[in-house]
Amino acid sequence: VGLGDACLELHSQKTKKKIFLDELNRSLKLGKPVISGKVDILELKRNQDKLNDYSKAVNDEIGLSELTPYEVYGRIIHVKETLSGVELPKIEIAQADQWSREEAQRNLSIVTELQLFLKKIGRPIDHPFWGSQISVLLPSERERLANLIFEAIQSLDALEKKSSELSDLMMIQAPLSINEVDRQLEILDYVQTGMNFENIDVHSELWLVNLNDIEEVINTGKKISDIRSAFDQYLVDDAWNQEIMDIARPINKYGSKWWRLLSGDYREAKSKLSDLC
Q1: Range of the domain at 8
Q2: What are phi and psi of 147, to 5 degrees?
Q3: Which of 83, 93, 235, 270 could disulfide-link to 239, CB 3.0 to 4.6 Å?
């Protein structure tokens, strides 16, 4: 707008007094601006209105916060400098832009208390009582709770000991969590279903040497079991023991032909397939 050096940046969060005074002194010594040509009064009025509107916009209070954009921007700069290099989580607080100054101060106090509490106890998920549903512990309940905790510790020690012994017998890695203990029990239940290990050398190294082949057999067995579960209700019991290649071959060969019913092989295969259902 032609103001030149007379337009100084003044920001309470950034500008040092000495620097500002030096710049102000330099601007005052510039003297009256030299204007060439005719002055456009209307243009000057428009520029004046823009500057006044800008000044009003940055100094009017935001909602009920009693803070101006000028003050808020200064605080944002201070926060960015303080937390430079820190990756902050994105938190959206509903209707926070409608808080009054009193509400903002009250909520800030709550967050400050929470911050001090977390600094004292650490992350809640790492706390020994994480997941506890007890909100108040009365003195009369302490002794009962202490006894229960003692019994729980003894039970866990016994479980760890028995689980370790069982792992040694089964030649598997000892479980490190409750979920792994449950998995260990599933394996034990399966072993106890009546399988005959009398003629099986469970200590043979071939179980490890042929591990990939064994896993392939197990996966194939699972697929067969899934297929049987899906179609068992549609087939007779004896169907699973039948050779079906003689049935599948004509159906695959003639099934897409419009004249398939004219083929004796196709009709015979369809008849055999019907007998299996």
Answers
A1: 1-82
A2: -65, -40
A3: 235
